[in-house]
Amino acid sequence: MAQAFSVDEVFHRPAAQVWEALTDWPNAHQWMPGVEGMTAEGDTAEGTQLKFRARGADRLSTIAQCDAGRSIVLRSVQGGVTADYAYEVHEHGEDSARVTLVANCQITGLLWRLLSPLLRVAVRMSDGKQLRLLKAIVEVG
Questions:
Q1: HSE-up (13 A, CA, CB side) for residue 129
Q2: What is the per-residue pLDDT across 42-67, written as a single tens digit (0 to 9) for each?
Q3: Which of 12, 49, 71, 103 could make an S-S bridge to 41, C-beta 3.0–4.6 Å?
Q4: Helices (DSSP H) in the chain: which residue ranges?
Q5: Residue-wise pLDDT tens digits, 22-46
């Protein structure tokens, strides 16, 4: 997979509080650009499917990896594009957390490969602000 972008933010809240907001799927639309709503088909654990509506279409994402309280990878497959969004939450001093998001894309098919540079830019421009938006929600309440 090729990296589309990597961002990190320091949250001035405890890591547990940040993790709780990060995995509060019904409220993900508040910080995930383009997402209109999201529900989990079970607990926040590896293999759980997340159903969401984005840009007018119903979509699925799967929790590909989960180390509760620390890291989670959300995998979405749309056509010839597989996207992994890997979030990591680390303690960062007293009552602070550093959160990292790395988005990776794997592209198959000739047309998708031709469009891959534009796709990665679009992903970065749309989703590169997720952590800033989440931070605002967590810190302001």
A1: 11
A2: 999 999 999 999 888 999 999 999 99
A3: 49
A4: 15-22, 110-127, 130-140
A5: 999 999 999 999 999 999 999 999 9
- Rounded Cα distance between 90 and 98, Å, is 5
Q: Which long-range contacts (CB under 8 A, 24 or more apart) does 80-86 make?
A: 80/107, 80/108, 80/109, 80/111, 80/112, 81/105, 81/106, 81/107, 81/112, 81/119, 82/1, 82/106, 82/107, 82/108, 83/4, 83/123, 84/1, 85/127
Q: Kindly report the pTM of this predicted structure.
A: 0.90
**CATH code where residue 82 lies:** 3.30.530.20
Total domains, the chain: 1
Which of 1, 4, 6, 2 minimizes the C-alpha distance to 100?
A: 6
User: Rounded to whole angstroms, how far apart are CA atoms 134 and 75?
Assistant: 19
Look at residue 84 in the predicted model and tell me its pLDDT. 95
CA–CA separation, 72 and 86 (whole Å): 6
